[in-house]
Specification:
The structure holds two protein chains of two kinds. Chain A is mostly helical. Chain A is built from two helices and two strands. The model of chain A has no long low-confidence stretch (mean pLDDT 88). Helix content of chain B is 43%, strand content 22%. In chain B, the strands form three sheets. Chain B has a five-stranded mixed β-barrel. The model of chain B has no long low-confidence stretch (mean pLDDT 89). The chains are: A mainly alpha, B alpha/beta. The A-B interface holds A 8-10, 13, 16-17, 19-20, 23-24, 30, 33-34, 37, 40-41, 44, 47-48, 50-51, 54-61, 63, 65-67, 70 and B 134-135, 137, 140, 145, 154, 157-158, 162-170, 188-189, 191-193, 264, 267-268, 270-272, 274-275, 277-278, 281-282, 285, 289.
């Protein structure tokens, strides 16, 4: 599993959904489901944090293919 | 009497003459609108005329609803459709499917030509349309940096999905030089970036202002783009060739920005929902475990050896109590017997007999015990033992009696 802080919103969100699907799929040992639950909580916080902190970045692509701030 | 057609037969014959003419089945005609009637059914009935002739025309609701341009009496228009016969009234008329203002006739003709050509090539095929990624990390924007449209786009993105990064690929968006610039801007994004989606946008304007987006080069660049393209050109009613080719058409630049992004407020809510699901699931799961655990413990209590162990322990206790009692009783019994023996013994002690007034008589000469009168004769020296001393005596006489036959011991 990747360090949660490095996950993009999309990846964290997708993993959160996957965690829930896995938990709901049934026979998971309690210990494992607790681990999954913890992971899910962290993913959720990470997602919320990313949304709260995000600021739109606007750059421009120059004629010779460089990306620079607008 | 000559053979005569019925009116219906003749009319059918005439109608079929129209129907076999390719020209009349796909025709553009120009004229001035008169007698425009928009029926409550949604169909349009009108007449097209010029100085020398007139043509009855009808546009069914299915086509009329799609027209962004609604002609009125006096308008010069070009109309597209086919010529057919209305049997019951014995008139031929134009069944129109498209109307345009006449002034832009040339442009529209070009437009229709190019549209037909690209459509025939399959560039509009729904199967070519790629999905727009739900969470774009980088969004390429092909537009003019000075345009209000670009500000609108940024505003929408900032509000809806500030996680995204915008990469503007600047270009002019109108005039004769615009098409190659737009093409280059699209190609640059494909060549130098990994943006998830490209927005090709221009704000509203006249039909001529938007014309660059009806350019074949632009349309082909959009079709060739490795990255999915969403178009947002002009206003809601403007359709460009680029719109047909792109993976998704938005009615305006702002709408395009909406369509390429999830709404972060919804995402917030969605993450909250997922978190709730997670918590509820875990609570339920733990609750289930607790309930099961309690049930198992009860079951375990029933089958546990502890209770039989308790039973055994009690039985052992019982036995041991009985054993102790038994032992005590035995000892007691023995003690009693012993006491009895002691008493008997004490009773048998000669000294105690002496105390009661009896005496032991010993022949002094040999110390022999004198238990019978027969063993002494007069003159025999005797030692008479009493309980507190001895007496020396001598037998004076003897007399045996039957009553002495019983010995003391």
């Amino acid at each position: 599993m990747n360090a949660i802080n490095e996950l993009s919103f999309e990846a964290a969100y997708a993993e959160l959904e996957a965690v829930i699907t896995k938990l709901e799929s049934g026979d998971i040992p309690l210990e494992e489901s607790v681990t999954l639950y913890e992971r899910g909580r962290q993913l959720s916080e990470h997602c919320q944090g990313l949304l709260d902190k995000a600021e739109l970045r606007v750059n421009q692509l120059t004629g010779d293919g460089r990306i620079e701030p607008l | 009497m000559p053979d005569a057609y019925s009116i219906s037969e003749l009319t059918t014959f005439i109608r079929e003459m129209f129907e076999v003419s390719e020209h009349l089945q796909d025709v553009w005609v120009q004229g001035e609108v008169s007698n425009m009637k928009r029926a409550s059914s949604g169909h349009w009935y009108f007449t097209l005329k010029d100085s020398g002739a007139q043509l009855k025309s009808v546009m069914w609701r299915s086509s009329a609803d799609k027209q962004t341009f609604k002609p009125d009496d006096g308008d010069a228009i070009i109309a597209h459709g086919y010529i057919g016969v209305y049997d019951s009234q014995g008139v031929y008329q134009l069944y129109a499917d498209t109307v345009r203002p006449a002034g832009t006739g040339d442009l529209y003709a070009q437009f229709e030509l190019l549209k037909a050509k690209l459509e025939a090539e399959g560039l509009f095929d729904p199967a070519r349309k790629r999905p727009i990624p739900p969470f774009p990390r980088q969004i390429g924007v092909v537009t003019s940096p000075e345009a209000a449209a670009f500000q609108d786009i940024q505003n929408v993105l900032r509000r809806r999905f500030p996680l995204a990064e915008v990469i503007l690929s600047p270009t002019m968006v109108q005039g004769n030089d615009a098409p190659p610039k737009i093409v280059a801007a699209i190609e640059r994004l494909n060549a130098h970036t990994q943006v998830d989606v490209i927005m090709v946008c221009r704000g509203g304007g006249s039909i001529e202002d938007l014309w660059a987006f009806n350019d074949e080069r632009v349309a082909r660049a959009i079709a060739a783009s490795r990255i999915p393209v969403i178009t947002g050109v002009g206003h809601e009613t403007d359709f460009t060739i680029s719109d047909f080719v792109s993976d998704l058409r938005a009615p305006t630049p702002s709408a395009a920005a909406e369509l390429v992004t999830p709404d972060s407020a919804e995402l917030h809510a969605s993450v909250r929902d997922l978190t709730d699901t997670l918590n509820i699931f875990m609570d339920d799961k733990l609750a289930t475990f607790r309930v099961n655990l309690a049930a198992y413990r009860r079951t375990l209590g029933h089958v546990s050896p502890a209770s039989s162990i308790r039973n055994f322990r009690q039985r052992i206790d019982d036995r041991s109590t009985r054993l102790t009692a038994l032992q005590t009783a035995t000892i007691e019994r023995w003690r009693e017997r012993l006491t009895a023996r002691y008493a008997a013994l004490a009773a048998a002690n000669p000294r105690s007999i002496l105390k009661r007034g009896y005496a032991i008589v010993i022949r002094s000469e040999d110390g022999g015990r004198v238990a019978t009168a027969k063993r002494v004769k007069p003159g025999t020296g005797l030692t008479i033992q009493l309980h507190d001393g001895e007496l020396k005596a001598r037998v004076e006489d003897k007399d045996t009696h039957e009553r002495y036959k019983r010995t003391l011991f």
